[in-house]
Amino acid sequence: MQTQSGAPGFRTEETLLNAPHDRSVALLLRHSARYPIFDDFDPYQAQLTPAGVRMAEDLGRWMGRQGMRLGGFYSSPVGRCIDTAMGIARGAGYWANVRPEEKLSFPYLQPTRRNIIHFRASDPLPERVVEAMRFMLRRNGGLSTFQVFVSHDSYLACILAHVFLEPIEDHWPEFLEGMAMWREGDEVILSWRGRTKRISGI
């Protein structure tokens, strides 16, 4: 399904249109649609479905039509994440060298998830959440570029739960849904489902 403006039918469109186009923006996405996971002991073998590949390519094409210039492509080392990044690049007409990064894998953030239910507004963000955000923000592609980072639903949900201080179940991302993040002065701005949050000290 597609929205009236021609973007694929997921919530990433609103996030991208709300992001500034005069600075480098980090776009953190869940991978595209995959086959079901039947083995809980080996959850990373499930690959993208043909529809998932088309979704990624459609997003890249839509970003290109919007005049969004894409910069670097980074991914969790898991195949479906790499293939999602490659599909977005292909759709946008880019030849992309997708760089796998352990900091985008769920095991990197998994220790912080155990403490989410006890996290309070007065607490500092977990160091691994801060490091993950710094990693993405440091990949600055210059003015008017979107840096694409592809990871997993649990990874994205973990960051969102700490930032927006809501139960992790309220932030469960759909396939190919993501948040945008950029610097504005001494603050970092996060955009997600029409909402923004300002954070200092990142």
From TrEMBL:
Q: List, alphabetically, the InterPro entries matched.
A: His_Pase_superF_clade-1 (IPR013078), His_PPase_superfam (IPR029033)
Q: Which CDD domains match?
A: HP
* Native source organism of the sequence: Ornatilinea apprima
* SUPFAM superfamilies attached to this UniProt entry: Phosphoglycerate mutase-like (SSF53254)
Q: Gene3D superfamilies given for it?
A: Phosphoglycerate mutase-like
Q: What is the lineage of its organism?
A: Bacteria, Bacillati, Chloroflexota, Anaerolineae, Anaerolineales
The name this protein goes by in its record? Phosphoglycerate mutase
| Superkingdom of the organism of origin | Bacteria
